[in-house]
Amino acid sequence: MNYDYIIVGAGSAGCVVGARLSQDPACQVALLEAGGEDSAAALHQPNQWPLLLDGAVDWGYTTALQTGYNLRNIQYQRGKVLGGTSSINAMIYIRGDARDYDHWRDLGNPGWGWQDVLPYFLKSEDQQHGASAFHGAGGPLTVSDLMAPHHISSAFVDAAVAAGHARTVDFNAGTPAGAGLYQVTMRNGERCSTAKAFLQPARKRSNLHTITHARVLRVVMEGDRATGVDYFDGMQVVRIHATREVILSAGAIDSPKLLMLSGIGDPAQLESHGVTVRVALSGVGANLCDHPGSSLVLPLKEAGQALPASNLVEAGLYMKSANMNDGFAADLQFFVTPFAPAQAGAVGKSKMMAISVQTCRPKSRGQVSLRSANPIDAPLIDPRYMTHPYDLALQIEGLRAARDITAQEPLKSLIAAELAPGAHALDDASLEHHIRATSGCIWHPVGTCRMGNGEDAVVDAQLRVRGVRSLRVVDASVMPQITSGNTNAPTIMIAEKAADMILS
User: Fold this and answer.
1) Does domain 1-68+75-146+190-286+446-504 correspond to CATH entry 3.40.30.10?
2) pTM across the whole model
3) 444 is catalytic
């Protein structure tokens, strides 16, 4: 079977690319997804997302033992369904800091500065409050306020202001700072994934061929050109051909895995698994970066219940470190969950809340590598959390700031006590012990097919894989540095920009 374009992965990026490329009726586009249809009711009811993790719509990945986390494995949820991780995430819409993108540009990626990418954020967006200098209206992706935020969320914002932080009504104008309620990718109280926003309308087109339950095994190469892919449909291996391009949108874990299985990567690693080296690219799988997450856990005086349209993580804060002066608006991001653990909020009442802290631009770097040459084997994922002292210092500062906010009204009178790390954990050593023993991640992996110049770059500024013709990577793996916040909105932006590049 021949197509003009083959897109591997119908997730946050792939649904966007498939929808945009198929707007050209002369193009035949194949969009392959390892998972199935996004038909389960829990995928659409926002407060159910914690119940989706480690289920049928999740890859079920786990990290290697993390030395920075007391040799613990961390669950590493990634969506395996139409919409990918945009179908199982907490739906927070965050672009990050304008300087994130200017930094990408300055690393040797012309066309990726803030003023270059802002039009693509606007292109996607259907902002509840209408169009403005920083927001779009009429795009496929609905971005809205929470319908009925819990009073704990509002109390956190007021308490943060009482603690000296600014109040914000828009985290997405390029300089995120202060406390406020998050906006979310929801439409009429339901999740608005990229499957719903972009793919569902596009599937009416006869030139877009969506193939579910298609486990891609490798990219097919003829010399230095990508000509197609092999995929397993549950019964047999099927080969399809691309006359123009193969586009990997399998995410920051599986896109590098597919490159390596196809002979594109670090020669020593490929040869150790018996994979024939076609293109030597040492950066494939390297530069893995993810946001760490550390939490205060606080019993409440009264139990609360999440409404169906709650994303469970309703309020937040962007805070500048007292020790940093690098031009960024903030160094720490906070997430407030009025219902902890989140699974309790998904199924009934909860009598605890959590305030989670993440370092905006962590310096710890890890790697994705092959477990074996068998495409069905899960990759080895080693983010190396908390192995850089910068990350630890900021997490400690963030926990102290969160604790300071809980001492302010109106939040103080709603809290019974501090369960973890506990009132006894006052010095840095105690907070470090808590972080290493209990922290996890915020599920924002990026960087494993880094865009840029130099020996460790995998794709160029046009997202073309170096040394290979007709092969691009379009997903969060191409980010040369992680953005200062949730990565779903930036990934959608990358896909919008990439589609323009491809069509031009």
Assistant:
1) no
2) 0.98
3) yes
